[in-house]
Amino acid sequence: MKNTNKIILLIVLIVINFTNLFSQDLNEAKRLLKLANTYLDVDNYQLANEFLNQAKRIIANNNSWEGKYWSAVADETLGKFYMKMENYPLAKLSLEIALNKYKEIIRMKDGSPEAVNSLIQKIEDLEASVKIKDNTKIVSLDNTKIPSNLLLPTEIQSFSAINSKIKDFPYYLTTYKKIHTVILKQNKIKDFNIPTIKSLSYLDLSENKIKQINGDFSNLPNIEYLYLSNNSLKSLPISIGSLKKLKLLDIRNNNIPFSDIKNLIQSMPNTLILHDNYILDTEKGDELSEEIKDEENIEEN
Length: 301
Prior knowledge:
It is a single chain. The strands form 2 sheets. The protein has a 7-stranded parallel beta sheet with strand order 1-2-3-5-7-8-9, with no helix packed on it. Strands 4-6 form a two-stranded parallel sheet. Helix 1 packs antiparallel against helix 2, helix 1 (about 1-40) packs parallel to helix 3 (about 65-85) and helix 2 (about 45-60) packs antiparallel against helix 3 (about 65-85). It contains 7 helices and 9 strands; from the N terminus they run αααααββββββββαβα. The protein has 2 domains: about 1-130, Serine Threonine Protein Phosphatase 5, Tetratricopeptide repeat; about 140-300, Leucine-rich repeat, LRR (right-handed beta-alpha superhelix) (Alpha-Beta Horseshoe). The chain is elongated. The chain has helices at about 1-40, 45-60, 65-85, 90-105, 115-130, 260-265, 285-300, and strands at about 140, 160, 180-185, 190-195, 200-205, 210-215, 225, 250, 270-275. By secondary structure, it is an alpha/beta fold.
């Protein structure tokens, strides 16, 4: 009996030692992955690749739920690495492998509810990323929740995210030098800080919740079409008058006083300004209404 107890104790100690060993290895792998991502963010691809490969070698020997999770994280990091290198086929393949691993481990019973909920969000983010075609110039993510770590092709020229629950303008778009079209209608943007995107010619921010526009419109020197209808604007920055190439400005269904709109019409004679029809119940109402109609006829002609 005593011998049996000794054997059981020995087995328990061995299991504990192996568990501790795997735990230590996994912590080291996490550290290496963190380093890989850090160096990837600063474009040091050589060190990023070295740390990533070291992490993958360690994780390959761990078949626990957590080990499989970090294996998926490693493949996701590899996808980011290939995206940085502009190797879109391999980037997409790595992201799809990571996505499949996440879906597989979410069915395992070892994960806590919190971990599973986190995984569901990560899966949704990755599914949005892998929708983007290799080396595409047009990205459409309409009716899709946009992930915070979205990877976009460097040659992107058009970005659309209609009804995607966006609360802030995606300022990462400023890094894409060839982008000329951004469509973000039907979202939840409240404040809009004008980004610096010199290549942008078409911007649609209609049907948001924008109350205020901050910044200088001269940061968008080539804008030709600007849609701001169906927001909560009470005014526009004076700098909007600097947009010499602006062909159309849609500011319907806001709270902008007609006196401001009238000044815009006068200061921007080459811009078609779409605005509300104001009906004023004053002694001068008929006179002003006729004046508005005349201006609208001029705009239409």
